[in-house]
Amino acid sequence: MSKKRFISILSDYGFKVTFGNTTSTLFLRTTIQALIKSEVPIASVEFDRSEITGFTIANRGGVFDVSCIDDNGDNYIIDMQLDELKKFIKRSTFYAANRYGSITHKGDFLFEKLKKIYMISFLNGVVFPDSSELHHIGKLRNQHGELMGDEITQVMFELGKWNKPVEEITTNLDKLIYVMKVTHTLKETDTFNPPEFWSEEWIQEAIKELDLRNMTPMEREYAERQIVKAVMYNTSMKEREEAMRERDELKEKLTTSIINFLTMGIPPQQVADAVNISLEEVLKIKNEHEAS
Fold first, then answer.
1. 104 and 54 within one domain
2. Same domain, 32 and 161
3. How many CB atoms neighbour CB 7 within 10 A?
4. Within this chain, do residues 180 and 247 fall inside the same structural domain, yes or no?
5. 276 is in which domain, residue-wise?
6. Among the three residues 167, 185, 214, which one is the final residue of a domain in this structure?
7. What is the CA radius of gyration of the chain?
8. Is 121 helix (H, G, I), strand (E, B) or coil?
9. Nearest to 16 by CA among 201, 187, 226
10. Which residues contact 275 (CB under 8 A, 6 or more apart)?
11. Measuring CA to CA, how many Å separate 273 from each of 134, 248, 264?
């Protein structure tokens, strides 16, 4: 840590002091505008205190988020998903639907007065490997692609697909992702010639919060503890994933063996006794194999 110059936005602490900066929201507002592809700047946002549950990754599958409302009353949930990407769509859909349901119970329940929900997710990896797209914006549409409702908008960005040279960076979204993916790799000893956009006010707002040199000894100690915690969490996640892969491989081998035994004409009960599982499980595997 002593050689690092900046803290990563992909850490719990980095996310909190940039996206969750309650003192100045320029970085947050500019980010939201870029991600939802709005031509109209977001004038102001107010943090929804009831939804800021601690900016923590504990028991959340590597997730931290912040919730805010703009001056038009539209709701934004900005979400950082570090792992368990296979489950994030269901989880983010639940988040957005839960927020939508909560606002219908406020006020006089007139549907024309309902505000929009934007569920914005940064994904530290690749979710759609067969697609070259990395910035996804989804709304409810019919089978012909016609819009049926824009009350809930899902916005997803796959960080694992972004690899743009600095000289090709022109949009605010690319500037944001550059800061998210590159800043924390810089060391105190590096000779760094920052790109021109580095000096833009909204970028500097985030950089200032991430710079270890601007922190008091107590702030720096806290930041380092949070990063160590995140590293330990990610390590344990990899160990669990490896254990799950081994379990799945063993299950696949067992299934193959059972199918082979059954194909040889060995009665299901004898197969169950031989591999030490229930007859019901053997029959289930047999039926699934015959149906495939």
1. yes
2. yes
3. 25
4. no
5. 217-292
6. 214
7. 24
8. strand
9. 226
10. 254, 257, 258, 261, 282
11. 50, 21, 16
Q: Are residues 205 and 221 in the same domain?
A: no
Tens place of pLDDT per residue across the chain (292 aa) = 447 788 888 887 888 889 999 899 999 999 999 999 998 899 999 987 644 343 334 444 445 678 888 988 889 988 887 665 666 777 778 878 877 777 765 555 566 667 888 999 888 778 888 888 999 999 988 888 898 888 889 999 988 889 889 999 999 999 999 998 888 888 776 677 888 999 999 999 999 999 888 887 777 777 766 666 655 555 555 566 666 777 788 888 888 889 998 999 999 999 888 888 889 989 999 898 888 7
| Residues 77/117, Cβ–Cβ less than 8 Å | yes
User: From edge to edge, which strands make up the β-sheet containing 135-141?
Assistant: 45-47, 63-70, 75-81, 117-123, 147-158, 135-141
Query: pTM for this one?
Result: 0.69
Structure tokens at 187: 């060391």
**What 3-state class would DSSP assign to 30?**
helix
Residue 132: inside a domain, yes or no? yes
Q: 198 and 227 share a domain?
A: no
279 domain-assigned: yes
Alpha carbon distance 214, 118 (integer Å)? 33
166 and 223 in a common domain = no
Shared-domain flag, residues 142 and 19: yes
Q: How many CA atoms lie within 13 A of 230 on its CB side?
A: 24
Residues 61 and 177 in one domain: yes
The amino acid that residue 68 corresponds to is C
**Domain total in the chain:** 2
Q: Which residues contact 179 (CB under 8 A, 6 or more apart)?
A: 9, 203, 206, 207
Residue 1 maps to a domain? no
Cβ pair 190, 2 in contact under 8 A: no
Task: Give a yes or no: residue 246 inside a domain.
Answer: yes
